């Protein structure tokens, strides 16, 4: 067994030590739930009869407890392409459960919004907080006590973290996530990006833009760029929460169905044997594995928010300094769009998660001793699934089939994971250097300040940004407006950069895995509405953003002596007023940007 890299070990040890008090309380709660919590044997006859009244042919098995009963929590809807395949999953999963003497019931559903649809719209202000709603919906679904194991159906951005956070409150039960896979490749992402930029320059019209977008997002399955949704799938593999190799197999294929069947059989086995409960699977080592995978593959910066939130739900504390130190130890071994030309299907065919796990294990960068739910040992995640006739088997993957996309750790694209912590008198922020050319890791320029992205677009169209400039978009944090992603900024800022200007973005908002080629200090905290110095900046202040030195600084100015800018009015319409209570109490981004977790920790 390869010795764990001492830098990864040091971060893990620090996370374990920092987490001890809260982790102990969490595990004690889960032990108490296993011993005395609500479950089928403890339900009254009236409670229990309600629970199996409509179970059809499974009714007798559930009533007499002849086998484990799996609770399915589904984020199905047929507007969201990634989740449309889940429509038929429950009836299939019930059949698969019966094959091994188990039963399955849909415990409940959760909302599943699409950031692709709401991007740049008012609905995006609900996006981050939908993670809390999903977690609470998962808890409501599982609160009936009818279940011995959990199957979570969800893929996209806030949905997987939300499902996990909710399921961790039932961490005495075993659980697996059951993915549905990415859509087949459509229009090449680079071509889509080219048309978007032409539209931003006014060189093509809306019809041409819509044609390009529809050719890219064209069918059922996850979007094929390596954003938050597909980063979710990578992390679930490296945390041991999938059947090995399940992440990137396309929907509607025999292999996809075989993996779903294997997941149901596995949850039923773990439930029957009362083995590998979720609380033990998600420990400090699993959280570090997720972070290592994120850095090694150039995954979404949204997970700088989601990893701390998932960890908190398990009583674990990890911060951006931990991520930055892991980034120094972990090389960048994948180039997947928007950090490369190929998409996740290309990544999968190049060796995908199997080769990624293999080369990271060989380098001592992953914890191989974690307790995995999807297999008996972590080594299984270094293999790729295939069908031998009708039998599901796994093959070793020892080399990459495409070194332009996926490389071994000894021959990386970059020596580090490319997610830097930048700090200074403007606060703490994330800079994803892996997406940006090294010649643009340092930008020093006067700033232009905005309070929303539409103001930036108006200034761009008026030619007011045709110069060296650092665009500051403030009052975009969790407390201000729910921390929407600011993807509308990528094409115009890219145009300015291509004109030869030194351009960067500084914001307390989000940009996610699609942040692209423009240098950006994002998730800045404290946010402007919560005492952050972004609120004290003025147009023309010179800002230095440096990925080399980890610096985010307003130069030659004492911000503490200035008055903060006036706050924008609170967002209303599109249901945003319903989320006001969350905005009022939300944590900073580095803690996960959650109102729910902050309140939960006051209780336990």
From TrEMBL:
Keywords: 4Fe-4S, Carbohydrate metabolism, Gluconate utilization, Iron, Iron-sulfur, Lyase, Metal-binding. Residues 405-592 form the Dihydroxy-acid/6-phosphogluconate dehydratase C-terminal domain. Belongs to the IlvD/Edd family. GO terms for biological process: D-gluconate metabolic process; Entner-Doudoroff pathway through 6-phosphogluconate. It comes from Sphingomonas edaphi. This is Phosphogluconate dehydratase. Catalyzes the dehydration of 6-phospho-D-gluconate to 2-dehydro-3-deoxy-6-phospho-D-gluconate. It holds the Pfam family ILV_EDD_C. SUPFAM superfamilies: IlvD/EDD N-terminal domain-like, LeuD/IlvD-like. GO terms for cellular component: cytosol. Residues 68-374 form the Dihydroxy-acid/6-phosphogluconate dehydratase N-terminal domain. It catalyses: 6-phospho-D-gluconate = 2-dehydro-3-deoxy-6-phospho-D-gluconate + H2O. Binds 1 [4Fe-4S] cluster. Its cofactor is [4Fe-4S] cluster. GO terms for molecular function: 4 iron, 4 sulfur cluster binding; metal ion binding; phosphogluconate dehydratase activity.
């Amino acid at each position: 067994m390869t010795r764990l890299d001492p830098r990864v070990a040091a971060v893990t040890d620090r996370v374990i030590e920092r987490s001890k008090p809260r982790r102990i309380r969490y595990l004690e709660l889960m032990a108490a739930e296993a011993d005395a919590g609500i479950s089928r044997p403890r339900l009254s006859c009236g409670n229990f009869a309600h629970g199996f009244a409509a179970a059809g042919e499974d009714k007798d098995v559930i009533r007499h407890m002849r086998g484990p009963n799996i609770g399915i929590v589904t984020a199905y809807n047929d507007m969201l392409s990634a989740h449309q395949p889940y429509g038929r999953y429950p009836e299939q999963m019930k059949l698969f459960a019966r094959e091994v003497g188990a039963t399955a019931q849909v415990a409940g559903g959760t909302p599943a919004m699409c950031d692709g649809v709401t991007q740049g719209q008012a609905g995006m202000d609900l996006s981050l907080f939908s993670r809390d709603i999903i977690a609470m919906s998962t808890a409501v679904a599982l609160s009936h006590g009818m279940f011995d194991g959990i199957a979570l159906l969800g893929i996209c951005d806030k949905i997987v973290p939300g499902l996990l956070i909710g399921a961790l409150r039932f961490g005495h039960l075993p659980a697996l996530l059951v993915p549905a896979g990415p859509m087949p490749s459509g229009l090449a992402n680079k071509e889509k990006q080219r048309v978007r930029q032409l539209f931003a320059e006014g060189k093509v019209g809306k019809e041409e833009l819509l044609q390009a977008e529809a050719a890219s997002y064209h069918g059922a399955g996850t979007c094929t760029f390596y954003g938050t949704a597909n980063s979710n799938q990578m992390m679930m593999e490296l945390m041991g929460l999938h059947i090995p190799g399940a992440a990137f197999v396309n929907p509607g294929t025999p292999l996809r169905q075989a993996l779903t069947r294997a997941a149901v059989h596995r949850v039923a086995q773990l439930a029957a044997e009362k083995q590998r409960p979720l609380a033990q699977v998600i420990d400090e080592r699993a959280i570090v594995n997720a972070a290592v995978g994120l850095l090694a593959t150039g995954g979404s910066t949204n997970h700088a928010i989601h990893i701390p939130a998932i960890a908190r739900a398990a009583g674990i504390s990890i911060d951006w300094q931990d991520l930055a130190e892991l980034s120094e130890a972990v090389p960048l071994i994948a180039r997947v769009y928007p950090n490369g030309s190929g998409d996740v299907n290309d990544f999968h065919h190049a060796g995908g998660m199997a080769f990624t796990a293999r080369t990271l294990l060989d380098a001592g960068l992953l914890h191989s001793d974690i307790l995995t739910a999807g297999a008996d040992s972590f080594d299984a995640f270094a293999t790729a699934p295939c069908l031998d006739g009708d039998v599901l088997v796994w093959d070793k993957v020892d080399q990459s089939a495409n070194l332009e996309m996926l490389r071994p750790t000894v021959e990386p694209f970059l020596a580090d994971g490319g997610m830097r912590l930048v700090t200074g008198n403007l606060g703490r922020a994330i800079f994803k250097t892996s997406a940006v050319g090294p010649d643009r890791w340092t930008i020093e320029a006067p700033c232009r300040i905005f309070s929303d992205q539409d103001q930036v677009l108006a200034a761009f169209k008026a030619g007011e940004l045709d110069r060296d400039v650092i665009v500051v978009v403030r009052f975009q944090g969790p407390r201000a407006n729910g921390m929407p992603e600011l993807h509308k900024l990528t094409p115009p800022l890219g145009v300015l950069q291509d004109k030869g200007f030194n351009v960067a973005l500084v914001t307390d908002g989000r940009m996610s895995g699609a942040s692209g080629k423009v240098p950006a200090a994002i998730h800045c905290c404290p946010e402007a509405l919560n005492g952050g110095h972004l609120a004290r900046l003025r147009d023309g202040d010179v800002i230095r953003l440096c990925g080399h030195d980890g610096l985010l600084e307003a130069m030659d100015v004492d911000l503490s002596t200035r008055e903060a800018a006036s706050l924008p009015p609170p967002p209303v319409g599109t249901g945003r007023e319903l989320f006001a209570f969350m905005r009022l109490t939300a944590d900073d981004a580095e803690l996960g940007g959650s109102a729910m977790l902050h309140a939960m920790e006051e209780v336990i």
